[in-house]
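Aim 2 progress. For 3'-5' exonuclease, the working sequence is reproduced below.
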Amino acid sequence: MNWWHEWATRRGARRFAATATRWVVIDTETSGLDLQRDHLIAAAAVAVSLEGGRPCLRVADSFEVVLQCPPGVVLDAVARRNILLHGVGRGEQGGGQAPAAGLRQLRAFVDGAPCLAFHAAFDAHMLERACRQHLGQGWPWPWLDLAELARALLPDLPHRHLDAWLQHYGLQVGQRHRASSDAWVTAELLQHLWPAWRLVAGSSGPWLAAQALLHARRHLAQTT
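Predicted structure tokens for this construct:
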């Protein structure tokens, strides 16, 4: 994919996001937190359907993939601790999908939908890098950070971490730090944020309203 075609694809995806009625919440698991050195281990996605003006979730419209560990990778102590945290060991990775095939399946599931994640910058960077490495093209779809949006919608609450938001709303997670469980519970968090989100959006679309709110919040932070 040449640069012009990729630019046009990203531009079209941003425009489509304004009126899309299917969003996708994504969570990734990696061998660590180093954006340049660590690799993608697993990814999960849950579709959010905006039916009747409210977000709906369906187990049938969800996806998870475990990727094979790159050959020759030697796990350091940090990577071993991280694998213990999310529970995707070398055995499961050995039976996982080849990275290129797994990423193609994830992209097919997203199918042009705008994407959301809690601390989205990390997931966006890891998927962008993995797609460029294994598919020769980046991740074309726009992102919205639910962590930043939650703080903007409910500024009086002190919560910063996902666990704090889950506790606040009484949300239960099947297996914390497993991509599929975290993606699902993050989508449930979106549902709980929806009333405040719609109030801010008013008559405008919720995706554009959220982007405008976050832009204003960042601008205010830079000028104060």
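The chain is about 50% helix and 20% strand. This observation will guide construct design in the next reporting period.
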